[in-house]
Design goal:
The structure is a single chain. The protein is built from 14 helices and 17 strands. The chain is an alpha/beta fold. Strand 2 and strand 3 form a beta hairpin. The structure holds pyridoxal-5'-phosphate.
Length: about 400
């Protein structure tokens, strides 16, 4: 079928048969390899978005493909009523690189955080009087299920679904005194993203994070780090807590874990790792042999191909190059760590940049009218970085020029 008619056909099906939750770009991707994508016309794109931080080892990494191919011909699913080897090998490897004791596998980031919140509530309810309050940070994004939505402190996501789960206290980002005040003996947990991703790549300050750790330890609350986006090497270490030197009691991850396949993990250490008991939580699909084999292959690829080092080096390079654009383009701010980058335009044209960039052959994302976010594969090469930056620069330049003539 001719490519434009394929796009039109899919757009018609979208309108007729799919709930309209997604605003999609008008492109049909048919192939991916490393940091490159191809559309149905055979045009190539540099992927600076990586499926929203999922394709950390690039598209169709040979190790992941081979692991999946091998496993899928042997055994696809039997449920968690039985043992299957890949899940247990993965559990051992993942908890080791994450510095945690135990893991519960699930199927997404939101599910990982739901598990974390359940551990927190059960933990707090053991106390007398029970501690049921959860402290969350303004601008956070923890998922779209009811529990996680209740701690996703952004009105646009929450309003239509209220009432949400009770007992959530929200503090402004990086407001240390508000945080200290909000954490009391009634608090069972503090949940935060060490760098807020969906709201625009905003790092939480070291002072704020240290205060969270300190107060949680003082009152006996659990510190939950949501590393669904920052985890699995995205910022240049396996998890961001390892750079910060602030260890959470519970650590969640998902996105990049499965090399493109859906898997999430809620990890815990110390006493928090023993809170959930038989029958407390579960998931039919979770940790199945195919996704577990893919995740194990993903970790091995990151480790054996030096992707953590590359994420640091190439992330620095991308930020430095974008900083140079400031000499002639209105770029207000550049944030992030490793391969998690956000930059602000001084004009509210980020969404126009996304669609122009796509026309120029580079995939990026806007988290707001002003912020462009890049989440490239950790193994992005210098050549791919240069090509992607060139295409993105052309797009930003064009949008800025058009805005100045409007
Ligand atoms: N937590 C963070 C920090 C995220 O960035 C996301 C998704 O963007 C989630 C949780 C939810 O993950 P999922 O979409 O896999 O449910």
């Amino acid at each position: 079928m001719e490519a434009t008619s394929l796009l039109h056909e899919l757009q018609t099906i979208d309108t007729e048969c799919i709930m309209s939750t997604y605003a999609r770009q008008p492109v049909v991707f048919v192939k991916g390899c490393g940091a490159r994508l191809w559309d149905a016309n055979g045009r190539d794109y540099i992927d600076f978005l990586g499926g929203i931080a999922v394709d950390a080892v690039g598209h169709c990494h040979p190790r992941v493909v081979q692991a999946v191919q091998q496993q899928i011909t042997q055994l696809i699913h039997v449920s968690n009523l039985f043992y299957t080897e890949p899940q247990f090998r993965l559990a051992q490897k993942l908890t080791a690189v994450a510095g945690m004791d135990r893991v519960f596998f699930c199927n997404s980031g939101a599910e990982a955080n739901e598990c974390a919140l359940k551990i927190a509530r059960k933990w707090g309810k053991r106390k007398e009087p029970p501690a049921i309050e959860i402290v969350a940070v303004e601008g956070a994004f923890h998922g779209r299920l009811f529990g996680t939505l209740s701690v996703t402190a952004q009105a646009k996501y929450q309003k239509p679904y209220e009432p949400l789960i009770p007992g959530v206290r929200v503090v402004p980002r990086n407001d240390v005194s508000a945080l200290r005040e909000a954490i009391t003996p009634s608090t069972c947990a503090v949940i935060l993203e060490p760098i807020q991703g969906e709201s625009g790549v905003y790092p939480l300050s070291a002072e704020f994070l240290h205060a969270a750790r300190e107060r949680c330890s003082e009152v006996g609350a659990l510190l939950l780090f949501d590393e669904v986006q920052t985890g699995m090497g995205r910022t240049g270490t396996w998890f961001l807590w390892q750079q910060l030197g602030i260890q959470p009691d519970i650590l969640t991850t998902a996105k990049a874990l499965g090399g493109g396949l859906p898997i999430g993990a809620c990890m815990a250490r110390g006493e928090a790792a023993d809170v959930l008991e038989k029958g407390d939580h579960g998931s039919t699909f979770a940790g199945g042999p195919v996704v577990a084999a893919a995740a194990l292959a993903t970790i091995e690829a990151i480790e054996s191909e030096g992707m953590l080092q590359n994420a640091r080096a190439m992330g620095d390079y991308l930020r430095q190059q974008i900083a140079l654009w400031r000499e002639h383009l209105p770029i207000a701010d550049i944030r992030g760590a490793g391969m998690m980058i956000g930059f602000d335009l001084a004009v509210p044209k980020a969404r126009e940049v996304v669609s122009t960039a796509l026309q120029k052959g580079v995939v990026v994302n806007a988290t707001s009218e002003k912020t462009i976010r890049l989440l490239p594969p950790l193994n992005l090469t210098r050549e791919e970085a240069e090509e992607g930056l060139h295409r993105l620069h052309t797009a930003v330049e064009r949008v800025v020029l058009e805005a100045s003539h409007a």
